[in-house]
Amino acid sequence: MFDFIRKHMRVLQFVLVLLIVPSFAFFGVQGYTRLAEGGRLTVAQVAGQDITQAELDAAHRQQIERMRREMPTIDVKLLDTPEMRQQALEGLVRERVMFVAADKFHFAPTDERLRRIFVTDPQFAPLRNPDGSVNKDVLAQQGMSSEQFAQRLAQDIARRQVLLGVGATVFATTADSAAAMDALLQQREVQVLRFDPKEYAGKVTPSEAELEAYYKNPAHASQFMAPEQTNIEYVVLDLNALMADITVSEDDLHKYYTENAARYTTPEERRASHILINAPKDASADVRAKAKAKAEALLAQVKANPDSFAELAKKNSDDPGSAERGGDLDYFARGAMVQPFDEAAFKLKPGEISGVVESDFGYHIIKLTGVRGGEKRSFESARAEMEREIKAQLAQRKFTEMASDFSNTVYEQPDSLKPAADKFKLELKTAKGVKRVPAPDATGPLASPKFLEQLFGNDALHNKRNTEAVETGPNQLVAGRIVSYSPAHTQQFAEVRPAVLAAVTAEMAAAQARKAGQARLETLKKSPDAALDVPAVTLSRAQRHDLPTPLVDAILRADASKLPAVIGVDLGAQGYAVAKIEKVLGRDPAAGDARQLAGAYAQSWAGAEMAAYYDALKAQFKVKIEPVKHATGDPAGTPAAPSK
User: pLDDT for 194-248, tens place per residue?
Assistant: First the structure.
């Protein structure tokens, strides 16, 4: 195909001109005009000022870029949704409302306040010089001058003042806070009688007519939908597939073993003790001569009595770290010490004492006290490891060479994957029941959203063509094709009858439980002092006793002005409950620090006040927001092509 294009390039260029020019003349100008107009399309208004589609697109791109930086592996398409664009638009509107309000109410910070905030706020530390002035070089890297930065900071502070004046002045009275905390932390002594549908399941027998009625009810249709799924075949080009076809000769293994001998040898380490007579390299010749003479005198004593080495080191060594240990330096590897010391130590045999060794630190007398390591693994023990490594290296090289050819093959022969499997000696794999979303237990290519997206693309799904070669992991390319496709459909009654039976039985059992519970409730209302055959528990929001949330909320909300109080709570599929409230107790200490909770309550109050004030500002400035449509272009920033 590519050879044909190359041979007939001039003819194709002429044909393209004939096709493109007329279409541009009839549709292109209008399309590009629409594109320009689309950028000026109004998506919201604040105080008569337009917020355009172009501004929304820019804000949405910035939103995506922020999330990309926070989550580098996220699929951008998951962010390009009407909900995300609506969120971006709400942010633009809020910013514009704050800007208009700050201007209208003259919320302009003074230069002194700006300077104080800049100097004291930790978030501006990267922008400050040590003397507190603005680092113009850092600002320049962000495309701002100091004047632009000051203007932006002033605008930001002014906008924040709009709501800060409301939120900072809101406070909850002691009475309000106490009432709220009492309601939140109150404990109640209660008896709870549960009517569980499971206890009634054996007492109901649905008829066939009831089962079919449930099945045909449109409200239950989604319960019996079989999702769309496909049976596919696919080929995987990766290092594992290529390694299986690679053999390594004995000569190559031995050569690799020799070239990498250091890897299969345990590094030799030596243990030594030393006596250091300090004489820095920049000391005078006289000082160094005296130090050397002292070292030679000590060496003579050591030679005469080797067992005195440790004692002499303690008394005479100028290395405080080792002197107290008799000069012991513990084990060290080659290269860990200064070169003259290192060379001398690794020439000694255990128990030997060196001559006077000169280094930049002075003069050393070294005694070798131990040797470990240096053993080499045998060829046979390293054989399997070496073979894997060589195969992986060869497979990596081979993958790089074959990747482009593999992609071209599955593209140029789109009706079958067998040519690619045969050419590259790959296994033609199959999978059944593949859905658009990876299954929870999926592994390998079938766990890749990118691969599944290609499989369910228009060309692969409807034309049964090969997908493109998709990169599903490091050094892994996958191509697939759909063998058969089953669209989403309602399953036949016979297929789902067991599920229908279970659903109807559960529904009828819940109804029986509800009926029994309501009957018991009526009895208790007539005789509230009658005892329940269940133990009383102390209930609070912190101590729920594994009771369902709707039941706990109902008990704690119930009117307890007259005790005992009896209530009934319909728990839907969980049945029914009757609760008898015996006592109202004080606050639950297990709920947490009451002062912290009171602070949180005050913050919530302030948040509610600010939200209400913001809504009032939106009404005052006549905010209008158009419904957000789906993306008008690529979320990464490329505009969509104009429509005809």
Answer: 999 999 999 999 999 999 999 999 999 888 988 899 999 999 999 988 888 889 9
Note the pLDDT of residue 502.
Answer: 94
Q: Is residue 214 part of a domain?
A: yes
Domain that holds residue 126: 111-167
Q: What angle do CA 455, 456, 457 make, to 5 degrees?
A: 95
Question: pTM for the complete prediction?
Answer: 0.47
Q: Which of 76, 102, 164 is nearest to 637 (CA)?
A: 76
Structural domain contains residue 95: no
Rg (CA), the chain: 40
User: What are the structure tokens assigned to 585, written together?
Assistant: 């107790």
Beta strands 489-490 and 225-226 are: antiparallel
Residue 535 Cα distances to 21, 166, 189, 577, 579, angstroms: 87, 50, 10, 15, 12
Is residue 345 located within the same domain as residue 301? yes
* 358 plus 449 within the same structural domain: no
Number of domain units in the chain: 5
Residue 339 lies in a domain: yes
Is pLDDT of 13 > 70? no
Query: Of the segments 325-334, 540-549, 611-620, which one has the largest average pLDDT value?
Result: 325-334
The torsion region of residue 358 among left (phi > 0), alpha (psi -120 to 50) and beta comes to beta
Asked, for residue 284, whether it belongs to a domain, the answer is yes
Q: Are 480 and 467 in contact (CB under 8 A)?
A: yes
